[in-house]
Amino acid sequence: MKTVYRTFVAILGACALVVNLAAPAVAQVGKGLVDPNVAAERDLLTLPHMTPAIVKAMLDKRPFMTVVDLNAFLLDRKLTAQQATEFYGKAFVHVNLNTGSREEILLIPGAGQRMAREFAEYRPWRTWAQFDREISKYVGQPETDRLKQYVFIPVNLSTASDEDILSIPGAGPRMVREFKEYRPWRTKEQFDREIGKYVGATETARLWRYVVIQ
């Protein structure tokens, strides 16, 4: 009887593994905040502490490759640290959960030293389900959902679904088509060459932040 039971459990485990492997991917970039790198001028003007002069300078300066770069820009424009934090309640440059620096994570409003430690501890991050499971142990699901807006898990160029790709700020239907056309992706040089034909080197570098080749 014990042998039959163990066999049954093993079969169930194998079935669960197959279901997990077959499950569709989900969007990998957090949603809910304005991305300052792709937002229209009129939308930036509605954000906390933005003036026409600051927005114009932001448009000229972008893309900001990290929120640390954005933070330096805002402070240089004479915003206080508190005002910058209020801006980040509405707009942010997403942090890569797998490579983001402590400095980036600490700029997430309310993240603090604890989340800087926990985000790093559970690397590599692979799914939002993993993020929900591990982070909600410390702060609960509502706060986990809030933090999720500020981060991303890199999208796998060779297997990402349309939904995954469209979660990348500013990607759009054209990038869905181009990302899928050149599969299998093998190197960053290939990405720079092929995507750069459509959007130029600067935008290609910004898009590269959100992807990984596996």
pLDDT < 50 stretches: 2-25
Span between N and C termini? 44 Å
Report the sheet with the most strands, covering strand number, pairing sense and barrel closure: 2 strands, parallel
What is the N-to-C succession of helices and strands?
HHHHHEHHHHEEHHHE
Indicate the percent of residues in helices: 55-70%
Shape: globular
Q: How many helical stretches?
A: 12
Number of domains: 2
**Estimated share of beta-strand residues:** under 5%
Oligomer designation = single chain
C-alpha-based Rg, rounded: 20 Å
Structural class of the helix and strand makeup? mainly alpha
How many distinct beta strands? 4
Average pLDDT score: 90
Q: Largest beta sheet: what is the strand line-up?
A: 1-2
Note down, in words, how this protein is organized.
The protein has 214 residues and is mainly alpha-helical. It folds into 2 domains: 41-152, no CATH class; 155-212. Helix content is 58%, strand content 4%. The protein is built from 12 helices and 4 strands, in the order αααααβααααββαααβ. Helix 8 crosses helix 9 (141-148). The longest helix has 21 residues, at 2-22.
